[in-house]
Amino acid sequence: MKEYDVIIVGAGPAGLFAANELKGRANVLIIDMGKGVEERNCPMELTGVCVGCERCGIMCGVGGAGTFSDGTLNLRPDIGGDLAEICGDEELGWWLVRYVDSVFLKYGAPPELYKGEKEEIEELKRRAMSAGARFVEIDQRHIGSDNAKSVIKNFEADLRSEGVDFLLNTNVVDILVEGGKCKGVVIENESGKSLVMGKCTLLAPGRVGAAWMEEIVKKHGIEAAHAGIDIGVRVEVPAIIMDPITKINRDPKFHIRTKRYDDFARTFCTNEHGFVVKEVYDGFVGVNGHSLKNKKSENTNFAFLVHVELTEPVENTTLYGRSVAMLATTIGGGKPLIQRMGDLRRGRRSTWDRIKRNLVQNTLNDVTPGDISMALPHRITMDIIEGLEKLDEVIPGVASDSTLLYAPEIKFYAMRINVNKNMETSIENLFVAGDGAGLSRDIVNAASTGALAGWGIKEKLGIG
Ligand SMILES: Cc1cc2nc3c(=O)[nH]c(=O)nc-3n(C[C@H](O)[C@H](O)[C@H](O)COP(=O)(O)OP(=O)(O)OC[C@H]3O[C@@H](n4cnc5c(N)ncnc54)[C@H](O)[C@@H]3O)c2cc1C
User: Fold this and answer.
1) How far apart are CA 342 and CA 262, in angstroms?
2) Same structural domain for residues 286 and 188?
3) Tell me, what CATH number does 40's domain have?
4) Does some domain include residue 127?
5) What is the pLDDT of residues 160-189, one digit of tens each?
6) pTM to 2 decimals?
7) Averaged pLDDT of the chain
8) No. of helices (H) and no. of strands (E), the chain
9) Same domain flag for 361 and 398
10) In a domain, 357, yes or no
C-alpha cells in the first residue's frame, strides 16, 4: 500500500492552497468526492432551476464551492473570517490575503481591481458613520464566472505537473487514528472501501462536508466548539436604489450595531439585477440570492443578517437555527415567507393583494405572503427593522414600505475546530483548514488557512 506524506481531503481553495505549499516537496494526494473541473456543471445554468447550492452537488469537486459563482475575491483578512485571530498576527493576515491574490493572478485571474473612487468611498463611509453604520472598504477582484473554471484548471494542471496526485469521485468516510496520531483515511468509491495511509492528513471538506466533520469530531474526540450563526432575511429593492452603491462596490458590506439589543447585523451577498431563490433543506425551506449571466431582473437583492451566539447551557447554534427555520417554514405553509417592509413595520401580514399592488415586484413567486414577526424571534425581527432603517439613511429607499423581505435566510457554519497556529488539531498529524473546520467563510480566508496548514505540515515533516 502506498503511503503518502500528505493526504488532503477536499479540492476547494483550502485544499488547493495547502497543496500549493507542499508541491514538489512532499508526496501529496488530494481526495475529493466531486468531479474534475471540466466535468462540473451548474444545473441552474442548464435548466434555469435552482435546487440550492448545498443540495445539487455544485459545491463538490475540484475548485470547491465557489467555482460557479462570479468568484469575487474579498481582499481583506477580516471579511469571510478572521485571519488575524487565527494566525495571531494582523500583518501576517494582510500578507496572506495579498499572497492568495497573487496566486490567483498567476493562474489567470483578471488584473483589474475594484476599489471605487477614493472620494466616493470617503463620502460613503462618512454617511454610514453618521447613521450609526460602518461601510467596510474592500478591494475586490472578480475572477468572473466565465473565467473561474480556467483559473482552477491552470491551478490543478500546475499541481499535477509538480507531482500532486488527485483521487476524485471518492468519499472519505473516516480517519484512521492510532495512539492519538492520525495515520490516514478510509475512502469509499466505485472500487469499494479501502485505507490510504499518510504521515499527515489535512481535512478541508468545506461547508458541504460540515456535517461529516461534526461526526468525525464526535467520534474521535477532536477539540471543537459551536460557532455562531446568522439569521435574517433577503431584502429585495429596485436595482436603481442600490445602483449608486453597487457602482462603488458590487457586494457592499455594511456593519451595524442595533440600538435596542446592541446586536451585530450586516449586509451580505448582494445580487445586482438578480433573483431571490428558494432553497429546500431536510425539514425546512430557506432563501438565497443569485445573479444570472444571461437574465437580469429589475431588482437587486441582498441578505440582511443578525449574528447569534449562544452560551451555556444551549450552545448548539445549528439546532437553534433549525428550530427557527422550521417555525418559519410552518408559518409559510412549507414555502418561504414574503412581506412588505411597510407591513412588517405596521405589525400586519402581507397578502397576495398587497404584494401584487406593490411597487417592487417579487422575483421569487413560490412564497407565502405573511408576517415575518410570527416566524423569527422578536429580537431578530426588531434588529432587522432597526438595522434596515439605519441603512435607509445611507441608501435612501432601502427601508421604504414597498421593500420586500423574504424569510428565513439562515447561514449555518461548521463547528470551529480548535487548532494551533499550524492548523494542527488536538490529534497529532491531523490538520484542518477552510469553511468545513469553521475557520473561514470565503475563498480568500479558506485559501489562507490552507496555506497556513501547508506551512504547518512542512514544519511537521521537517521540510519547512
Ligand atoms: C454559490 C456560491 C457562491 C459563492 N461565491 C463566493 C464568492 O464570490 N466569493 C467568495 O469569497 N466566496 C464565495 N463562496 C464561498 C466560497 O466558495 C467558500 O467559502 C470556499 O469555497 C470554501 O473553501 P473550502 O476549501 O473550505 O471548501 P469548499 O470550497 O467547499 O471545498 C470543499 C471540498 O471538499 C470536498 N469534500 C467534502 N467532504 C468530503 C469528503 N468526506 N470526502 C471527499 N471530499 C469531500 C467537497 O467535494 C469540496 O470539493 C460561494 C459559495 C457558494 C456556494
Assistant:
1) 23
2) no
3) 3.50.50.60
4) no
5) 999 999 999 999 999 999 999 999 999 999
6) 0.89
7) 92
8) 13, 21
9) yes
10) yes
Question: Domain limits at 366?
Answer: 229-411
Cα 3 to averaged position of ligand 1 atoms, centre (Å) = 27
Domain match, 168 and 216 both: yes
Highest average pLDDT, of 148-157, 243-252, 365-374, comes from 365-374
31 Cα to the center of ligand 1, angstroms? 14
* Residues 150 and 293 both lie in one domain: no
Name the residue type at position 161.
S
Q: Are residues 181 and 71 in the same domain?
A: yes
* E-assigned strand segments in 204-341: 224-225, 229-238, 253-257, 264-271, 275-281, 284-290, 299-308, 337-340
What is the reported pLDDT for 71? Answer: 79
Residues 401 and 448 in one domain: no
* Residue closest by Cα to atom 15 of ligand 1: 442
Per-residue DSSP letter, 109: -
Q: Where are the beta strands (DSSP E) in 291-439?
A: 299-308, 337-340, 368-369, 404-411, 416-417, 430-432
Determine the average pLDDT of the residues in 329-350: 97
| Closest ligand 1 atom number to CA of residue 14 | 25
Q: Map grid coordinates 450563526 to a residue.
A: 229
Residue with cell 492568495: 100
pLDDT confidence tier of residue 43, bands split at 50, 70 and 90: low
Write down the residue that cell numbers 500546475 correspond to. 158
Residues present in the chain in total? 464
pLDDT of residue 308 exceeding 80, the answer is yes
CB of 443 within 6 A of ligand 1: the answer is yes
Evaluate whether residue 131 is within a structural domain: no
Model confidence over 247-268: pLDDT tens digits? 888 889 999 999 999 999 999 9
* Total domains in the fold of the chain: 2
Q: Is residue 168 part of a domain?
A: yes
Is 277 in the same domain as 393? Answer: yes
Which atom of ligand 1 approaches the CA of 69 most closely? 3
